[in-house]
Amino acid sequence: MNVGDSCVESLWVKLKGVKNEGDIMLGVYYRPPSQVEEVDEAFFKQLTKLSKAQDLVVMGDFNYPDICWETNTARHRLSNKFLDCIGDNFLFQKVEKATRGEAVLDLVLTNREELVENLKVEDSIGDSDHEIIEFMILRKGRRETSTIEVMDFRKADFDKLRELVGKVPWEARLKGKTTEESWKYFKGTLLRAQKQTIPLCRKDRKYGKRPAWLNKEILHDLKIKKESYKKWKLGQLTKDEYRQATRECRGKIRKAKAQNEIKLATGIKGNKKTFYKYIKSKRKTKDRVGPLLSEE
């Protein structure tokens, strides 16, 4: 897939979902140790663009030997810019063990932490001085387009609806009618007025639904993180203050996810359906892979 920036040594492939599965953007990247900052910035733009559009997994030799992934800190300026890019896009780095000597050079990044599981760092192949990284990508269901139409009350004109219903001479219209006839007349009149004043929209089964772990406190922290980024760009916060806000937000998200899983596990006796629904959503894998090249 062409994402521009030919100076960046990256390759992107869209794994098309089959049946009810969603697409995944899979990337491979190599960063030479002597790569200039302009090329780094071009790659960061690719990451930002693709991570917002769909599920993303990118792997490769990033060559940032000075980064400590336990504390998300680095000694060099370019390494810190890379950490900022990861934080800004809420990407997760899944490799914890050294892949060359004592350094973690080969990374696996994703915008959904649960998308990459069972990651292993094993022995190298042949004369290579880099270790092998093996992992699984768990697929998620594709969002289906619903054909069901529902009333969009957010865009309804209730004043107009009251006006139309209020103009009907109900006493005269219903005089002499049976209960069944009166009901049919009332229903028909209301539906006609409703059609004129309340628009329809397609029902999206996932619209407006938040993950169970995304509570008001996390939403507040995300807002603070976003405001901190704006202040940092305006020079009102130092980089360390902004990165601290990012780390705190990421830590609370991971803690909230873990607490939600504990809550589901402890409450399984009273609510098995919710527990197994959650497990099923995390284990959607298929043996076959869809077409690697679309006709678009």
TrEMBL record:
Q: Which residue windows are transmembrane per the record?
A: none
Signal sequence range: none
Query: For the Endonuclease/exonuclease/phosphatase domain, which residue ranges apply?
Result: 28-133
User: Coiled-coil ranges per the record?
Assistant: none
**Entry GO CC:** extracellular matrix
GO MF: catalytic activity
Protein's recorded name: Endonuclease/exonuclease/phosphatase domain-containing protein
